[in-house]
Amino acid sequence: MTERAHVSGSECATCAGCCTRLEGIGVRINGATVLRDVNFHTHCGELTVIIGPNGAGKTTLLRAILGELPCSGRLFFTRADGAPAAGRPRVGYVPQRLDLDRSAPVRVLDLFAAALARRPVWLGVGRRWREAIRAALALVEAEDLCDAPLGALSAGQLQRVLLALALHPLPQLLMLDEPLAGMDRAGTELFYRLLSRLRLKHDLGILLVSHDLSAAAQVADRMILLNRTILADGPPETVLAGGSFRKLFGLDLAPFASSPDAASHAALWHRGGLEQPGAEFTPAGEP
């Protein structure tokens, strides 16, 4: 597995432990088995990419982790000493897309206030909450979008806004379901660099569902091949060279995953990409 930076417990903003575990996860929908016997764990600071064909159960797995679907098995968070923490892990989620009425007069500020505030948005957003929301957006280099209409955002801008929202409160596990769909190359590179910086700064464990196999191979610590159950789990070059991957996709991407260009790209990712530090998000009271 690719060596990764690890932040000590005193510095880790999640500070609850280091591992999210799934044991025997299964999902049945309308009598049909969608997932069966899914077992894996992901550490803080580790990027795990989940790949698989359409209908493999990738989004279903994320929804089960979120608690949106009933499932069998166990999901729990363990501390650095191996002891289970109380309750489910704290999870942040970035969906594949957000269906919007692009004609609606809703700003980025309104979306945050509706999600985080305790009073109706139509009563207005106070200065302290506005400052806090701008600080949240600064984490993903989007503070200039605070007053932008949601319907006017590009695919990359919208995903950065949703990423900022998923980081409050700071999760122990960040999950992203095809977050790069529809982005141009510049937006994709910026999004990956932001993820890199955030995971190093906050020791985030990240689950990323992706169909972009070559790009995923360059940035992943670990890759899971899913087709209703886990068929392969390990370093990207091992999974992409395996028989299960070749049988499903008819490809062998292992040479690309271990190429000098890929190694250089991965090194940038693991160093954190962009160097300037992000802003901190400290809730500042009611709007």
Using brief descriptors, characterize the structure shown.
6-stranded mixed β-sheet; disordered N terminus; 3-stranded antiparallel β-sheet; 287 residues; 10 helices; 21% strand; alpha/beta
Concise description?
With 287 residues, the chain is of the alpha/beta class.
Describe this protein's structure.
With 287 residues, this protein is an alpha/beta fold. Helix content is 33%, strand content 21%. The protein is built from ten helices and nine strands. It has helices at 58-66, 108-116, 127-138, 155-166, 185-202, 213-219, 236-240, 243-249, 254-257, 260-271, and strands at residues 19-29, 32-43, 47-51, 72-78, 91-94, 173-177, 205-209, 222-226, 230-234. It has a six-stranded mixed sheet with strand order 5-6-7-3-8-9, sandwiched between helices. A three-stranded antiparallel sheet has the order 2-1-4, with helices on one face. Strand 8 and strand 9 (230-234) form a beta hairpin. Helix 5 (185-202) crosses helix 10 (260-271). Residues 1-17 and 274-287 have low confidence and may be disordered.
Structural class: alpha/beta
Give the rounded overall mean pLDDT: 79
Uncertain residue ranges: 1-17, 274-287
According to DSSP, the number of beta strands is 9
Radius of gyration: 19 Å
Percent helix: 25-40%
**First CA to last CA: what distance?**
45 Å
Indicate the proportion of strand residues: 15-25%
Cα shape: globular
The number of helical runs is: 10
Widest beta sheet: strand line-up? 5-6-7-3-8-9
The arrangement of helices and strands along the chain is EEEHEEHHHEHEHEEHHHH
Q: What does the main sheet amount to?
A: 6 strands, mixed
